Amino acid sequence: MGDKDSLASPAPGQTGDSASPTSLAALDATKLNITLAKTLKPLQPIETLRFGQTFSDHMIVATFDPEIGWSAPEVKPHGPITLDPACSCFQYGGNVFEGMKAYLGPDGKARLFRPDMNMRRLERSCARLALPPIDGDVVLELVKCLVDLEKRWIPKESGYSLYLRPTVIATRPGLGVIASDHAMLYILASPTGPYYEVLKPVSLLAVSDNVRAWPGGTGGHKVAGNYSPGFLPQRIAAEKGYNQILWLFGDDRRVTEAGAMNFFVVIKRDDGDGVDLITAPLDGTILPGVTRASCLALASDPEFHKECCVRLHPQEKVYTMSDIIKWSSEGKLLEALLIGTAVIVGPCNKIGYEGEDIVIPGTGMGPVGTAFRKKILDIQEGRTEWKGWGVVCP
Amino acid sequence: MGDKDSLASPAPGQTGDSASPTSLAALDATKLNITLAKTLKPLQPIETLRFGQTFSDHMIVATFDPEIGWSAPEVKPHGPITLDPACSCFQYGGNVFEGMKAYLGPDGKARLFRPDMNMRRLERSCARLALPPIDGDVVLELVKCLVDLEKRWIPKESGYSLYLRPTVIATRPGLGVIASDHAMLYILASPTGPYYEVLKPVSLLAVSDNVRAWPGGTGGHKVAGNYSPGFLPQRIAAEKGYNQILWLFGDDRRVTEAGAMNFFVVIKRDDGDGVDLITAPLDGTILPGVTRASCLALASDPEFHKECCVRLHPQEKVYTMSDIIKWSSEGKLLEALLIGTAVIVGPCNKIGYEGEDIVIPGTGMGPVGTAFRKKILDIQEGRTEWKGWGVVCP
Which residue ranges are recorded for the region named Disordered (chains A, B) (predicted)? Predict the structure, then answer.
């Protein structure tokens, strides 16, 4: 059922044959044009915030044309975008995004958390879908501009933040299975709170018949098409009474991710030297999460061990449902943690697998998860300085 | 890096808890509202048609709202669509489409080719991404309306047609990794010609490090996110001098699809009883193509064997690059065919694999491919009646 153009060579501009890359305009934050909203929206009471439903007054937009390059980016009122219905973003899924948060510190300054990691991932995601190249450092400048402009939207309360969503979509206005030589970058800002009022544990259903990611696929990139295939399994899990899915991979039922988050287990060691902190390796089927990398870095830092009151042995390695069952039966499975930008660190209390529930001990977040969450929030909210992870805006 | 909402239960309307399915309006072709373009575009000379670049005067649009159901569908001038930038279609890739063609027969009637197969697949694709349910029979009524309205856009010349692109996109206007409870259906019409003036053979680069589809994924559905991950490998193949990719799967290098098309090989049999027509089985990693199914059906029909002048033994089975190399070295590999709605049937002349080229004999399409192409075009263009495959519009 191929499109006819699927036989064609790359379109002009795709391989630099219509215009040399050097003649195309680069994305340039210094060219930012600002069109402010005529009236500003009232801030919403923080109790009524629901994730991703409220947006600030403005967004930033820039477009890529294969003959011109990147347009001057523009701050404009947050609002709808208008596109040709034949655009690749609708037809062939050539869309990528990032999720970041800006926090207001006790010093009144807005901070991003390790935004360079998001930007490098955005560059890789764009390259993986053959979108026009984008300079993440410039995108970060634009993100900082938006944070600065929308500072009144960052809630002052701990655990609240301004969620930022840089998105790049493929806007080639025609059918044909070929890389998009047009693109649009936009950055949205949405005030958001902690997912839990109390840190309520999440139940997971381990699933192996639906597979989120696979070697040679796009599971290691933040591309839009990774997410919608999980919606039907997620609905089925919800109907069975579970909050989310634990994605397994392969005949040996390797544990990969939970929902759209990374997943860690805390395992008591036989030698009595603290605990193992285990998560799946970055083999292309796992999203390289910023919070994941941060927890692994903290876990290998003796200074953090003191704060955590336990020695942690971080391990990125393949582990399976059989391992989890064994650790559980031996009483070594101490904590199971969901890790991601939105949740930061959250507890899992049970895993449904083949008709049985593996129950995680305790009634909420355990000591390791609690220590991670506290430390990362302290850094994000500017109460602690730590290795330059908190980046002040602008 | 999960969204906070990825922990949440399905949104209202997702599981029918906000409004019972029976209270929602069904898509209804009899409610079609028609707003005609004020001026009609001039028809383009057929020599200048490029696939998917020219569109007819009108499109059909309908929207799904979780509280109301489907809106009355509307014929309106072909043009841009306006959406919230937080919509799922941009963020989470919840988009599906179909490709179909309307042909003008010698009797002056417009015909679709087995459109019921496209509509069942559209229903399955929507269900796979947890999009709101859609009745393919009603979509087909709308497609027929559009074909009837745009009949002047169907070129009269053999091999030319009006390509139709029913598309369903996820329009939930908010972030959060959850099924979209809003959707938009639109149907575009684009006049198109044969890909080749002469049936120029296509070269393929066999690729196993990038994997198009995998068990438990969406390769058996026509979802937008299946396509963009192939753009980078396609560009690399083009830089190596190949027109398209032959997607392999698994350690044993199973042959699956070519570009965005199904793939067949014609193999001389040892028993002298004609040829085997071999294609990969529908195991979830292969798109169930309409042209694929039609070739398989023709290949098992003795009446077609007479037209083809050879006895065909159709086989849907796993076969590998090792098999292709063996068949080639034994002189049994007679033809390799690309099969899809856009190309119909096209020849492959070589397959690059591990630094060597496997050369397919002959200088163009072989006798089996030629017979398939002629028969299917005869049915599509209304010169032959065959099992009800040609469906007159309206």
Answer: 1-21
| Assigned token pair, A238 | 């919800």
Of the pLDDT bands very low, low, confident and very high (cuts 50, 70, 90), residue B193 is: confident
Q: How confident is the model at residue A8 (pLDDT cuts 50, 70, 90)?
A: very low
Segment B112-122, tens digit of pLDDT: 999 999 999 99
- Does B268 share its domain with B140? no
| Domain membership flag for residue B8 | no
Please judge whether B232 and A130 are an interchain contact, meaning their C-beta atoms are less than 8 angstroms apart: yes
Q: What is the span of the domain harbouring residue B107?
A: 18-192
Say if residue A234 is in the same domain as residue A178. no
- B262 to chain A: nearest residue by CA? A1
Tell me the nearest-neighbour CA distance from A331 into chain B, angstroms. Answer: 27
Same domain for A166 and A271: no
CB atoms A217 and B227 under 8 Å: no
CB contact under 8 A, B210 and A232: no
pLDDT > 60? residue A17:
no
From the CA of B272, how many Å to the nearest CA of chain A? 32
- List pLDDT tens digits, range A159-215: 899 999 999 999 999 999 999 999 999 999 999 987 655 578 999 999 999 999 999
Put simply, the answer to whether B93 touches A7 (Cβ < 8 Å) is no
Q: Hey, are the CB atoms on A7 and B216 less than 8 Å from each other?
A: no
Q: Would you say residue B394 lies in a domain?
A: no
Residue of A nearest to B4 (CA): A342
C-alpha angle with apex B374: B373 to B377, nearest 5 degrees?
Answer: 80
Work out how many domains chain B is built from and give that number. Answer: 2
CB contact (8 A) between residue A93 and residue B211: no
Nearest CA in chain A to B173: A53
The 3-state DSSP class for residue B336 equals: strand
In tens, the pLDDT along A250-307 reads 999 999 999 999 999 999 999 999 999 999 999 999 999 999 999 999 999 999 999 8
- Pick from B136, B169, B192: which residue ends a domain? B192
Same domain, B323 and B236: yes
The continuous run of DSSP H or E covering A203 comes out as: strand A202-207
In a domain, B145, yes or no: yes
Quick check: A210 and B216 CB within 8 A?
Answer: yes
Q: Say how far residue A19 (Cα) sits from the centre of its chain.
A: 34
Residues of B in contact with A262 (CB under 8 A): 1
Same domain assignment for residues A320 and A250 = yes
Specify whether B150 is located in the same domain as B40.
yes
Do the domain assignments include residue A394? no
Average pLDDT over residues B104-125: 97
> Packing angle between helix A290-299 and helix A115-128, nearest 10 degrees?
130
Neighbour-count burial for B26-45, b at 16+ CB within 10 Å, e otherwise: ebbbeebeeeeeeeeeeeee
Same domain, A308 and A271: yes
Do A167 and A232 lie in one domain? The reply is no
Burial class (CB in 10 A: 0-12, 13-18, 19+), B114: buried
The two tokens of residue A79 are: 């609002």
